Structures are given as structure tokens and as C-alpha cells.
Citrate synthase (Leekyejoonella antrihumi), 402 residues
Amino acid sequence: GYEISALLKETGNVTLDVGYVNTASCQSAITYIDGGAGILRYRGYPIEQLAKGSTFLEVSYLLIYGELPTTQQLEEFTGKVQRHTMLQEDLKNLLSAFPRDAHPMSVLSAAVSALGTFYQDSLSITDKDQIELSTIRLLAKLPTIAAYAYKKSEGQPLLYPDNSLGLVENFLRLTFGFPAEKYDVDPVMAKALDQLFILHADHEQNCSASTVRLVGSAHANLFASVSAGIHALSGPLHGGANSAVLDMLGEIQRGDDSVETFMKKVKNKEDGVKLMGFGHRVYKNYDPRAAIVKQTMDELLKKLGVNDPLLDIALQLEEIALKDDYFVERKLYPNVDFYTGLIYKAMGFPTRMFTVLFAIGRLPGWVAQWREMMEDPATKIGRPRQIYIGETERQFVPLDKR
Ligand code: ACO
């Protein structure tokens, strides 16, 4: 057609790659994935080693600054994050204006967007000190905002952060504690949540990280870019899958479908039903994060003494899928989200908070991706082309003649 040849004339070639299945949008030194072999490394370190031996703040430092911190660097970084956990009081007015049944992901994104109005002294995309300040502010304030979104949905009073606590401990207290009541953080729960945050911390050019980069490529500030990334993460094909898994398991438990009938529906693609928490664009093997999550879940449920019938349903679904031709031929394995929801539920989080927890974990990855892009002299505004398939030129017809 006329329009396609126009684009060809202009560029010399045209690539149509719907969903960017085979298109690299950047060069990056942050995260390495080998989807066929089930390998994931942050800055060269295998995810299994980081999950076992590191902490979320240390991994955040690694992703953002490129190296593991020394003891002194970690102390300084932790101290800075601890000092910035408070929110401007006026920001609380914004949070209180949302309806109580607002989805906490919408509240989270709106509040992060609003950080750009409260902290106008850290909006630069070139000034290193300002970028550092917006980085620390985001890392410190996102857990506070997330906990406030929870409190709001429960109709409970807000607490002020306790900056003598670590990031995860503070978040758990802000979420589950009450003013004037002592809240003892369960160290087993805190350790498990810290590990889950590590597992979610980055995943190279996934949908939300690509969103953060695309928005930032127009020189939008870090708060605006991350706010957009939170919206991308909320979708059920991305971070929203962790709550969709629980909804799916709940429906089976309620007897809407037996496990077998449900799997038949999935394979027949009835009403677009999918086995949520299964499949991945990059992993064509067991997601290495899912393997770690499964082990953590076993240990945690045992320690907390939780016996969840939804777990039996999940295990049955996995067992069927791993043997079934439909899933085997398409190389569909559990992804990181298949079992995380069961852990979050055991910790006491309502389903609507699951994707918010993912966002807290993914934040250092978004920040690292945005900063890497801003420092790369090869960066250009992200601007995909299209192949036009509409009408060729035609003449305007006035309204009274149509
Ligand atoms: N259940 C049933 N069938 C599936 C599933 C699933 N979960 N995932 C993929 N398929 C099928 C597709 O229907 C397609 O079948 P076809 O070849 O007959 O057309 C084939 O497997 C290939 O799948 P695509 O959709 O082309 O794969 P894509 O890479 O585009 O999608 C995605 C990846 C979005 C993750 C997909 O597997 C999915 O929707 N999974 C369920 C949602 C989910 O768990 N998302 C979380 C991803 S991980 C994360 O974001 C943290």
C-alpha cells in the first residue's frame, strides 16, 4: 500500500514486532536472564545466592549503584533511607480523599505521582544530587505510602514510621500495627518478605520497567516515570497476576469448577481463561524465582502453622500442568507469582495488597533502569513506528452530504 512504501522510503526497512518479542530497546548492564536455562542474575550475581545471603536494601544498592556495598556504604545507605520514610502531612490529605474501596495500586501510583508536587527540589534528570535525593525518597516513602493505602482500605488510623526499624520491619508495623499498641515484628515473617522483595527487585525490560524507561525517555522525572510503571505493573498479565492466582484458586475452592474442569477450560481457551501464574515471555523453563518461592512458602507455612486448602489446589494444578501436553509443548511453567499470593495471604495481607507488595520489591529495579538510561549517551526518546493499515487518501464529505 501507499503508506507502507512511504515508511520504507523514509527508513529503508520496517520491522513489525508486536509485543516486542524480538526487539531489544536498549543495552543494559543490570540484569541477565537466560530463559531457556532458567537463569537470573543481578549485576552478575545468581538470584539463588542473593536470595539466600543478601538483604533487600543491599540488593537495592547493588542494582542501583552496580556493586555490592561495603559495611560502611550499606550503613550510610540504610541511614539515608531510614531518614526519609515520613510523608509530608499534606500528602495524607490526598490519601484520605480517595474512596475507601479504591484499589491500593491506584492509590500507590497517584501518591507517587504526587511526590513530584511535594518534592520539587528533586525533579532534575541531570543533577546527580537531585537524582540521588529522589532515589532515596522513593525507596523510603513507597513502603509508607503502601502501608497507608492498606490502612485506608481497612478504615484504620495511620501510624508514623519508626525509624529505628529496618525497611521491612517498619513496613510491617505501619501495616499491621495500631497507635498506642506495641507491635512486635515476627522475624520469620520479616525475613520471608525481605527475600520476596529481593526476588522481585528487577527483571530487565519487562512491561513496567519498559514503561518507566519509555516515560523517562521523554525526560519525565523519576516520580512521574515510576508512577507510570506502577500502573503497568497493576495489569493481570504482569504484577496483577499474583492476586489473580488467588482469585482463581478461590473460585475452584468454592466449587465453581473442579480442578479438572478448570484445566479443560484453560486448554480449550474458553472465555479466555488462563492458568494464572503460569507462563512467561522469557522463561521457557521453571522460573528460578518460583523455585525459591515454593521452598520459602513450605518453610513459612510450617513455621506459622498455616494449613491452607488453596495450597493443595495450587499443587494439584501444577502437577497436572507439568505433565500435560498443552503446557509442555508451550513450555509453560509456574512463574514467580504462582505461589507468592499464598505466602502473602498467610502473612495476613488481603488479596488487593499483593501487587502493591510486588511494586515495593520492583522499585529498585525501576530506579536502576531509569538511572542507567539517563546516564547512557545513546538514549533517545522512545518512539516506535507503525505499519499503517487504514484508508488511503480520500476526500472530505460535508456533514449534510453523508
Ligand atoms: N495459561 C494457558 N495458556 C497460556 C498461558 C497460561 N497462563 N500462558 C500462555 N499460554 C498459551 C497462549 O495461549 C499461547 O497459546 P497458542 O500458542 O495456542 O496461541 C501460548 O501459550 C504462548 O503464549 P503467549 O500469550 O503468546 O505468550 P506471551 O509471551 O505473549 O505471554 C504471559 C506471556 C503474558 C506471561 C502469559 O504466559 C500469561 O498470560 N500468563 C498468565 C498471567 C501471568 O501469570 N502473568 C505473570 C507473568 S510474570 C510477571 O509479570 C511477574
Summary: Residues 19, 237-239, 241, 266, 274-281, 330, 332, 335-337 surround acetyl coenzyme *A (CB under 6 Å). The first helix runs from residue 2 to 11. The longest strand covers residues 31-34.
